[in-house]
TrEMBL record, chain A:
It holds the Pfam family BPD_transp_1. This is Taurine transport system permease protein. It comes from Cocleimonas flava. It is found in: Cell membrane. Keywords: Cell membrane, Membrane, Transmembrane, Transmembrane helix, Transport. The chain crosses the membrane at residues 12-30, 51-71, 453-476, 488-509, 515-534, 574-598, 610-633. InterPro entries: MetI-like, MetI-like_sf. It is a multi-pass membrane protein. Residues 449-629 form the ABC transmembrane type-1 domain. PROSITE patterns: ABC_TM1. SUPFAM superfamilies: MetI-like. Its main location: membrane.
From TrEMBL, chain B:
Residues 1-26 form the signal peptide. The keyword Transcription regulation does not apply. GO terms for biological process: alkanesulfonate transmembrane transport. This is Taurine transport system substrate-binding protein. It comes from Cocleimonas flava.
Length: 643, 324
């Protein structure tokens, strides 16, 4: 229904974004102007100073929308819908470079070889410390120490440039020249040549950014895109060749072989005279295992002389600078318009990471909202808010208890030999009570929102009906205060969510459990507020009524109840808020319908658009209830705060 | 670009929280499940992983595979051990940069659908489930299993009321009689369910229906790119732990303690598990028309939504290079 709007979303969002910024600027100027020109006698602290100011309302709303549109990258998409596709190609290249890049101290941290060296030496030190504590014989001790020393030497052998063999060095040089070659190609305007027919076909098949979910079109579609895509493919082969290079100079290999022999002989030596202490035996075996593990990591040959890789690092820096300059304006667009995250290329697709991921774009969210609002689609086959034609009988069934049929004397009819059942009075009553009769149909609201709403209203209703009288009497009677106070004060401070698992176990997964939970929440709040209201009544008013001859009942109805109304209505306002909070959690624990259920299921599929839709629905409903309560308060107790 | 971006990003709280979440620590962070007994828990408790990797390994337990994915995307978790295939597929459909690198557990009885005896339903009259309720943690392996079970038995899933509950809660609902069938995983929950009911399908019947349930090892692409040796070592230690356990089960108590189960329940659960060796994984699961290649697209379509449509090709998210 709104699909045509979605078609032009770029233009619409862009216009709205600029309009919002203009609104903020205008409102600020208008506000300043107003301050200068307006004459007001109200002193500080006079509520009159807070009257008016609708331009600030507009500024506030606009500011929220600007932040949302900006951080969800909706503005970025509106002004440059192709940016994500190009950044995806850039992402492919950086993801291809990443394995080499992460071994160098380019971003942060140590050279990988350095951290490996530190790590292995640390472990060797720990092993050396253990030697004294393991109760080795002198021969064993000296052998163990010798092994550790040899291992240290092997590591030194890897780091000293004189042992680096020429073959490895040649491989490094080759990598450098290939990276340099790639840098030169990136700078070349004609690289990688015209796109092939396949590439063009793939580019044409690209969906638009965000057309289906959070999809970013992956196939390159612009000259810059083709360039980065081709460079990424080439870089991948360079990276995989680089990661195969091992420091296997002959000196090191010989040392490793010797070490293997040493450890094996140490192992046999240790096993030959095990001693008697079981713990010690295990610890000794662990010691030998520890040596083996360090050796296994060392013989990977990932440590090189400190300066051997400098050329590669320089080549990488050059490549990095070149690809940055090749990005051109795109880079600044990325920085300015797509804050708080990046577009990352994965093995199968590109994705928005950071705020772009979990903060869906307003235009997409609105579209999802419109889509699931369609009663034909809904969520999990159930509409959000719609109506359903229901037979009148169902309502009769709901209101009239079934047991009245059992009260009618006599038995239910049996079928006769022809298989015909003749209804009698008892069965007719039963049919009526269970709603089992032909009746006209009435439209009844149904859907996730309605179900949640009904639960909240039912919980509130019972909470108010039972809580207010009890609260008033607790304020007036010694017995009810003393008797109910401990009961209520014991359960009231417990967070409603703590009750939720228990209540769901007692009542099961139906509506009654959720309503009871909400009732508990509303009841406590209503009791407390009604009680505070009752005790807060001015004694002079009660005395005045009494001396005018009012009965107890009249005092209660005409003096105490009206005087506690402000407290009660504020209590209702609070109870509504807490009820919504509790409801969502209750529906998450056991849900078949309801807004909390929708949100919980969407969460499991990382469907952030639906999650935000539910959040917006909850916010709007909360606002609606609050506005209603404000209206009620204005209507029924206009004298509040003026007495 | 990055530093400038960082400065800009830190200007806002929104971006700040995002960047804080992505700052990964130097240790290796692994996600796992409680109540899910696997031999590598011996290696976990005995710190074999830490020693072999030379790094500190932080094990963080999760209640659902979805939560694992979320933690991986925010950079708090590098490797998810025994993630369900369903949350993985959901994440891949939503374009999350994670990879499948191995099979952790194959199970027939680890997850199950239990139908209550009170309801009088069995697989002969399974269509009576229509109009009744089923408790199941939606979008998990149990959900997948339930859907396949129902379609095997010819039950129309649209006529069934699905109640979204975690296995422990689902067990309570089944005991209370609020639902006719409950699907879930975890030995504590399942044995509670089986007190009042029995499995809908036996293990051979499940196999025949094509219900193959296996959990996987997944890893973030970034971690796999930057630390390939670490990932490889992790898989080696896991394979070694599985092989050791196959020979000698004397350390079962360690697994039980770590999984939070009693020894009997651990035994019972592990009897339904198999831990495929590297060779078995390569031949049975990762071969050209192996289980992974056939189940991934099937499941991808089953859980596809408007926002996260199924992928055309799932082979790109499978990487077996760390197994060799």
């Amino acid at each position: 229904m709104f699909e045509f709007l979605f078609e032009y979303r770029g233009f619409i969002v862009g216009t709205i974004f600029i309009a919002l910024i203009a609104t903020v600027i205008w409102a600020i100027l208008y506000g300043r102007n107003l301050i200068r020109t307006e004459k007001s006698d109200a002193v500080f602290g006079n509520p009159e100073r807070a009257l008016g100011g609708w331009h600030w309302v507009m500024t506030g709303v606009s500011a929220i929308l600007i932040v949302w549109i900006y951080f969800s990258w909706d503005a970025a998409r509106a002004f440059n819908p192709k940016a994500a596709n190009e950044l995806c190609q850039v992402g492919k290249l950086s993801s291809a470079i990443n394995p080499i890049r992460s071994t160098f101290p380019l971003d942060d941290g140590f050279l990988k070889g350095t951290s490996l060296l530190v790590r292995e030496n640390k472990q060797l030190n720990e092993l050396a410390d253990q030697v004294e504590r393991l109760g080795f014989s002198d021969a064993e001790k000296s052998q163990a120490k010798e092994t550790i020393d040899l291992m240290r030497k092997a590591i030194i052998g890897m780091t000293s440039p004189e042992y680096l063999d020429s073959a490895t060095d040649a491989k490094f040089k080759e990598i450098v020249s290939r990276i340099d070659g790639l840098t030169a190609k990136l700078a070349d305007q004609n690289y990688p040549g015209d796109p092939t027919a396949e590439q063009i076909a793939a580019a044409e098949k690209n969906p638009r950014w965000g057309d289906s979910g959070n999809e970013i079109p992956a196939a390159p579609a612009s000259p810059r895109g083709y360039k980065f895509d081709a460079a990424a493919k080439e870089m991948k082969t360079i990276t995989s060749d680089f990661s195969k290079i091992r420091n296997n100079n002959s000196n090191f290999l010989a040392q490793v072989e010797k070490l293997k022999g040493q450890i094996a002989s140490l192992d046999t030596l240790v096993k030959a005279s095990p001693g008697t202490d079981e713990l010690l035996i295990a610890n000794r075996a662990d010691f030998v295992k520890g040596l083996t593990r360090v050796l296994r990591r060392v013989d990977d040959g990932n440590i090189f002389p400190p300066d051997a890789l400098n050329n590669i690092q320089n080549a990488l820096v050059k490549l990095d600078n070149e690809q940055k300059s090749q990005q051109g304006g795109l880079r600044y667009y990325d920085i300015l318009m797509m804050p708080g995250g990046e577009i990352r290329a994965g093995s199968s697709s590109c994705s928005e990471q950071g705020s772009g991921r979990w903060l869906p774009k307003p235009s997409d969210t609105l579209r999802t909202f419109a889509r699931i609002s369609n009663p034909e689609i809904g969520y999990k086959g159930y509409p959000l808010l719609w109506y359903k034609m229901k037979p009148f009988g169902e309502m009769v069934d709901f209101i009239i208890p079934d047991f009245i049929a059992s009260l009618v004397p006599g038995d239910y009819p049996r079928h006769d030999t022809n298989g015909i059942v003749t209804p009698n009075f008892k069965s007719k009553v039963r049919d009526f009570a269970t709603g089992n009769f032909e009746s006209f149909k009435v439209p009844m609201p149904s859907g996730h929102v309605w179900d949640s709403l009904l639960r909240v209203l039912a919980g509130l209703f019972f909470g108010i009906i039972l809580g207010v009288p009890l609260g008033l009497f607790m304020g007036l009677s010694r017995f009810s205060k003393g008797f109910f106070d401990p009961l209520i004060e014991l359960y009231r401070p417990v967070p409603p969510l703590a009750w939720a698992p228990l209540i769901l176990t007692i009542f099961g997964i139906g509506d009654d459990g959720k309503i009871f939970l909400l009732f508990m929440v509303a009841f406590a709040i209503m009791v407390i507020s009604a009680r505070t209201g009752a005790t807060g009544t001015h004694l002079s008013k009660i005395h005045a009524a009494h001396s005018l001859g009012a009965t107890n009942r009249q005092i209660l109805r005409k003096v105490i109840l009206p005087n506690s109304l402000p407290e009660i209505l504020t209590g209702i306002r609070i109870a509504i808020g807490v009820c919504w909070g509790t409801l969502v959690a209750a529906e998450m624990l056991a849900g078949t319908t309801g807004i909390g259920f929708v949100e919980n299921v969407a969460r499991k599929q990382s469907d952030y658009e639906i999650i935000w839709t539910t959040i917006i629905i909850l916010g709007l409903l909360g606002l609606l209830f609050d506005l209603m309560m404000r209206w009620v308060i204005d209507k029924f107790i206009p004298w509040r705060g003026k007495g | 670009m990055k530093s400038m971006k960082k400065i800009l990003g830190s200007l806002s709280i929104v971006a700040l929280s995002a960047s804080m979440a992505t700052s990964a620590s130097a240790d290796v962070n692994v996600a796992y499940f409680l109540e899910w007994a696997t031999p590598n828990q011996i290696a976990k408790v005995e710190k074999t992983y830490d020693k072999a990797l030379g790094e500190k390994v932080n094990w963080v337990n999760f209640a659902t595979g979805t939560a694992m994915t979320e933690a991986m995307l925010s950079g708090d978790i590098d490797i998810a051990f025994s993630q369900g295939l369903t949350p993985f597929v959901n994440a891949v459909n939503a374009n999350a940069p994670i990879k499948l690198i191995g099979v952790a557990v194959a199970y027939g009885a680890g997850g199950d659908c239990v139908v209550s005896t009170k309801s009088g339903i069995s697989k002969e009259n399974a269509t009576e489930l229509e109009g009744k309720s089923i408790a199941v943690p939606l979008n998990t392996m149990s959900d997948y299993e339930m859907r396949l079970t129902l379609s095997t038995l010819g039950v129309d899933i649209k006529k069934v009321t699905l109640v979204d509950q975690e296995p422990a809660d689902a067990a309570v609902s089944l005991v209370d009689g609020a639902v006719a069938m409950a699907c879930g995983f975890g030995e504590n929950s399942l044995s509670k369910m089986k007190e009042v009911g029995k499995s809908m399908l036996t293990i051979p019947e499940k196999t025949e229906a094509g219900i193959t349930s296996f959990d996987i090892v997944s890893v973030t692409e970034k971690f796999a790119q930057e630390n390939p040796e670490a990932v490889k070592t992790f898989m080696e230690v896991t394979a070694q732990a599985n092989a050791d356990f196959a020979k000698d089960q004397s350390k079962l108590a360690i697994i039980a303690g770590d999984a939070g189960l009693s020894v009997e329940k651990t035994k019972k659960q592990m009897a339904g598990f198999s831990f495929p060796s590297v060779e078995e994984q390569m031949s049975e699961y990762f071969s050209k028309d192996g289980k992974v290649a056939s189940v991934l697209p099937f499941m991808g379509k089953m859980f596809a939504t408007e926002a996260a449509p199924a992928k055309e090709d799932y082979s790109t998210v499978v990487d077996t290079s760390f197994l060799k």
